[in-house]
Amino acid sequence: MEVDKKKAIHYYELAAMKGDATARQNLGVFEQQAGNFDRAVKHYTIAASGGHNDSLKGIKRMYEHGKATKDDYTKALKSYQTYLDEIKSDQRDEAAAYDDHKYID
User: Fold this and answer.
1) How confident is the model over 26-74, as pLDDT tens digits?
2) Contact 65/30 with Cβ under 8 angstroms?
3) Residue 89 Cα distances to 42, 62, 96, 98, angstroms
4) Which residues contact 74 (CB under 8 A, 6 or more apart)?
5) Which terminus of the chain has fewer CB atoms gathered within 10 Å of its CB, N or C?
6) Is 89 helix (H, G, I), strand (E, B) or coil?
7) Are the C-beta atoms of residues 51 and 76 closer than 8 Å to each other?
8) Measuring CA to CA, which residue among 70, 79, 72 is closest to residue 39?
């Protein structure tokens, strides 16, 4: 199957503008592959702020290879943590604890 990269990027951009973190992550991957590391970091950071853990990992790998700065990684990590804090709820914690105990017994 032949992939139309331009068309894919177009639709990822549309989805990213509507807040889709996975689309933003994919744009980061395209930019990283094209050698546009600053743009990749921006996409990854936005995706991380939307809860996309792979974006955080992407920036970490870029940092390890000298393609992103420590500040880039720190900013993304803080954005991701803010997202996690925003979605935290007692009900979600109770459900997770229930699932953990359900499989232990």
Assistant:
1) 999 999 999 999 999 999 999 999 999 999 999 999 999 999 999 999 9
2) no
3) 29, 32, 11, 14
4) none
5) N
6) coil
7) no
8) 72
